[in-house]
Amino acid sequence: MAITVTLDSTFVRSCEDGQRHLEVRLGNVEASNGARQVFAAVAKTDTPIEELIRRGLREVGQTADTGITAFTDGCSGLRSILVKAGVTKRPYLDWFHIAMRLQHAETTASTLSSETPEQVKAKAVIVAEVERLRWRIWNGKVKDATVTIERIRAVMPVFQGEPGCRKKDPPSRRLWTALREIDRYLSSQSAWLVNYAERHRAGLRVGTALTEGTANFLVNRRMNKSQQMRWSRHGADLLLQVRCAVLNGKFGPGVGQLFDAGTGSETATAACPPISRQSRGQGGTALTEAIQA
């Protein structure tokens, strides 16, 4: 059996003085047999994210011989958390965050001017090279990414004087900024890249897309994007523990044993009913007592 750990971070709005946002660290522990656990905690609280990861590993059946593969967005802080949780194998850079940067470059390239024959030709070259850049990274040929960057650089001068060039951010400038950001990102993360195509063909995970879905479910749907709510650090953390407990199939009479290392393994449920508004923010005294019981 093999286990994949994905770890990412997101933010919720803070109601505390001097802080605009609270960092939420969250992720998934998934075994090749289908067992899965989710975990989340607000940074700088008493909830140890490392222990949540260790507990998730135990719940899905980790043994001394289990192979563990981890993915992060490249943040050194998240890598340190994995090491403290006992995941010592070097984590891979996840494909999701690479793809988001590439998508931005592709979208910007499509907006380049094509009013002259030279611009039409140059735009076709750029669009093709950005797509080729995606293929190279996907197939583990990131060292060839500089070839794409240089080919694009060679045709960029034809867009000088394009419509909108007098604006602060014409499309050609935005594209070049996006490509330089991709180049810096890949250069700084080169040690954590992998042949994503090879893993995908083998039916293995290539990134934290599953964790992005977990973030949308645990955080963004109820706590951030559409609700416009602000949270105390303690209140947000408590609600996250409840939502994870529900998703992991542990919300019930045994919720007080959420952090008990001896809790038996259970299959994660597929959906979670909404948490009542009484439980949100700084409120929910009964909820606090139930978890701390």
Automatic annotation (TrEMBL):
Residues 268-293 are annotated as: Disordered. It comes from the Bacteria. Keywords: Plasmid. This is Transposase. It comes from Skermanella cutis.
